[in-house]
Structure formats: structure tokens, C-alpha cells
Design a protein that fits this description.
This protein is an alpha+beta fold. Helices cover 50% and strands 10% of the residues. The chain binds protoporphyrin IX containing FE.
């Protein structure tokens, strides 16, 4: 598609799909022509100036200090998950490590008590289908609406109680920081804090799960690379960036044209949905020479896996840190790690996120 139809109209839905790096980058950064407004209710669906003031408020929750402080906990959680799974001789990297790790980290970051964390994990599963789907394309049936309603109601009640507690007795957790945060005399309302907590659960969960499990899969498919990173751990950061490029967790981002726009010789009418394919842009040979090759020494590696521009992923440092802490521990403690390929790999193909459902290793 990149070569033949870089901007493609899906006649059935009326949406346009964009595949080449240059145009994908334009669509996700040019917020005046391709706003995010209406794509969803969270910060992901905001444009300036609303986006700027909201983002300023929540940025304080993701300082380098916060991330650095979490490192030790990430190692502890990873160790506990490895210990729990390892004695069986076989381990599912996705369900036993890559999936529980980020949700536990987010729960702890927010200040959810350990006893409530199983609940939190259930909500994360429950919200996934809805938040990742575009409001206009996602048409849940009656049963699904009821189920989602229950998840929302439970989370809402839980967070209202937690907010109440933290308002009176603030701690050092993210909820307390968000409640205190203010810029230009503005503060987040309780409702906004809750919305943001829900977004973190979704935005920061399966994406990180994918990154970690795809890293193991890529290493397994490239044994020479696995050997190289074992011998030279300093190559790991480059390897993680290459996994992000090669197996981007977010397939595509959604925008909507404000007015009629010309893109790569194609006219897109005003008010049209545009899908910017990150996964395709990240394989564009115009930008990444020998783009189908998994090359951990690629430099520069200006992949778009975390987006670009004003919506650039706020959790990127956290996702990178979690992966950089967990990967060496996995490689060290499972010295002969090998993906069991006797069964075909099961893929999770969400509307916007893509990854592995299971990754059994020995
Ligand atoms: C935004 C990807 C992990 C929180 C984004 C965007 C992408 C992305 C592509 C841009 C959306 C757009 O332009 O419309 C990823 C990937 C991750 C990851 C691939 C893991 C490998 C995380 C984590 C968190 C997080 C761990 C937090 C706990 C956010 C938030 C935004 C965002 C809050 C919205 C920023 C804004 O609209 O200004 N992410 N993400 N993400 N991400 Fe991530």
C-alpha cells in the first residue's frame, strides 16, 4: 500500500488510511488540519489549547524522578512473577509476566492497595475493548453495554472513595499528586482525575505487555541477536527501540479532518476519519533502510511507535524503564529461553492494538 496507495479511501466506511512515514507523521502532528477532538473522551481526544493545559497538569505525575524511584519496585514485582512461574519448567511470558507487570505498576503508581489489585486487573480487562475502539466505529451489543456499564460504575465508586481519602490524607502516590497539581491557577476536577486513572489503565497496560512479549519473540526469531544482547547488555536499549519499530504495539492512530486537506495528491473531505498507520510507517524503507530487517544497531531509529508531536506518549519513559528492568532479568534467569512453537502463536488483534495473547517459553 505504501508504494501503490499511500492514502487509501475505504469506500465502505468512508475513512481514509495513511501508510507512508511522511504522511503518517504529518497526520499525527498537524493538529490544525487533523485534530484529535472527538476521537475519544480522554486527553487523547483533546486539541490545543485544552490539551496543553490538561497535559501540563498531568505531566507532573511522570517526572524522571518518579520513574527512577519506581525502578526498584519494578524489579521486585518482576522477580516475584518470575519466581511464581519458573518452578513449573514452562512459562507463559504474556499471561504470567508481561501482562501482570504493567498493571501492577500502574496500580501501585496510583496508590491502589495490594488487596484491591486483583479488582484493578479485572477492570483493566473490562475497559480494554471499549477505550481502544473509536467511539464512532465501536458498536457494542446490549450485553456488552451492560458489562461495560458495570465496570465503569465499579471503578467510579472505587476512585471516588480513594479520592476522598487522599484529599483528606494525601500520600506520595499519583492520585495525590494529580489532586494537588495546578497550572495557571487551574486544577483537575475529581472527575478529570478519575478519567485519567482509567486512561492509564488502558494506555499503559497492553501496550507495555506487547513490548515486553514482542521483545522475547523477536529475540527468539533472531538467535544471533539474543546471543549478542546477552554478551553486550549495553545493546539492549537499541534492541528495545528496534522492537518498538519492528512490532509496534499501537497499529494506528485516529484523527479527523477539520477542513478539506490534500495529502500525497489525494483530497480528503472535511469531517473525515483518518487512520494513520504507525506500524506501516515504521517499516517505510524511505526512512528505515532495509526496513524488514530486525537490526538492533539501527541509528538513527526515529520510529513512531510512541506517536509524535503534542500527544507523544506520556508513559514512554515508564514503558522503556519497565522493559529495560524486566528484560535482563528474564534473560539472566531463563538462560535457555526458547519460545515453544509446537502450537501456533495466538495473536491479539484489537482494533488499534496488536500483540500476542500467549507466549509459552521453556
Ligand atoms: C499516548 C503508545 C505506554 C500513557 C500515546 C500515543 C501512542 C502511545 C502512540 C499517542 C496517541 C496519539 O497521538 O493519539 C504507547 C506504547 C506504549 C505506551 C507503544 C508501550 C510500549 C504507555 C504507558 C503509559 C502511557 C506505560 C502510562 C502509564 C499515555 C498517555 C497518552 C499516551 C497518557 C496521551 C498523551 C496525550 O494525549 O498528550 N501512547 N504508549 N502510555 N500514552 Fe502511551
Amino acid at each position: 500500500m505504501r508504494a501503490t496507495q499511500p492514502v487509501w479511501l475505504d469506500e465502505q466506511s468512508g475513512a481514509f488510511h495513511v501508510f507512508r512515514y511522511v504522511e503518517v507523521e504529518r497526520v499525527i502532528t498537524d493538529f490544525s488540519s487533523f485534530p484529535s477532538q472527538g476521537v475519544c473522551n480522554s486527553i487523547l481526544g483533546m486539541d490545543p489549547p485544552q490539551h496543553r493545559s490538561y497535559r501540563n497538569l498531568i505531566t507532573c505525575a511522570f517526572t524522571p524522578r518518579t520513574i527512577e524511584r519506581l525502578k526498584g519496585r519494578v524489579a521486585e514485582i518482576t522477580q516475584a512473577l518470575l519466581d511464581e512461574a519458573r518452578h513449573k519448567g514452562e512459562m507463559d511470558i504474556v499471561t504470567e509476566l508481561a501482562y501482570p507487570l504493567p498493571v501492577t505498576v500502574i496500580a501501585e503508581l496510583l496508590g491502589v492497595s495490594p488487596t484491591d489489585q486483583p479488582l484493578f486487573k479485572r477492570w483493566a480487562d473490562g475497559l480494554l475493548g471499549q477505550q481502544l475502539s473509536d467511539a464512532r466505529l465501536f458498536q457494542p451489543d446490549e450485553q456488552e453495554i451492560q458489562r461495560l456499564g458495570q465496570v465503569h460504575a465499579q471503578m467510579q465508586d472505587y476512585f471516588i472513595a480513594l479520592l476522598e481519602e487522599r484529599t483528606h490524607a494525601p500520600l506520595d502516590d499519583l492520585i495525590s499528586v494529580l489532586l494537588r497539581a495546578s497550572t495557571d491557577g487551574k486544577r483537575l476536577s475529581g472527575e478529570e482525575v478519575i478519567e485519567f486513572c482509567k486512561l492509564l489503565l488502558v494506555a499503559g497496560h497492553v501496550t507495555t505487555t506487547d513490548l515486553l512479549s514482542q521483545a522475547i519473540r523477536c529475540f527468539d526469531e533472531h538467535p544471533d541477536v539474543l546471543e549478542q544482547v546477552r554478551k553486550q547488555p549495553e545493546l539492549l536499549p537499541g534492541a528495545v527501540e528496534e522492537v518498538l519499530r519492528f512490532a509496534s504495539p499501537f497499529w494506528r492512530l485516529t484523527r479527523m479532518t477539520r477542513t478539506e486537506v490534500r495529502l500525497a495528491g489525494t483530497t480528503i473531505p472535511a469531517g473525515t476519519l483518518v487512520f494513520a498507520w504507525l506500524a506501516s510507517a515504521n517499516r517505510d524503507a524511505e526512512v528505515f533502510p532495509d526496513s524488514e530487517r530486525f537490526d538492533i544497531t539501527r541509528s538513527p531509529n526515529r520510529h513512531l511507535a510512541f506517536g509524535r508531536g503534542i500527544h507523544f506518549c506520556l508513559g514512554a519513559p515508564l514503558a522503556r524503564m519497565e522493559t529495560m528492568v524486566a528484560l535482563p532479568m528474564i534473560l539472566q534467569q531463563l538462560p535457555n529461553v526458547r519460545v515453544i512453537r509446537e502450537k501456533p502463536l495466538e495473536l491479539f488483534e484489537g482494533e488499534f492494538v496488536f500483540g500476542l495473547k500467549h507466549l509459552p517459553v521453556q
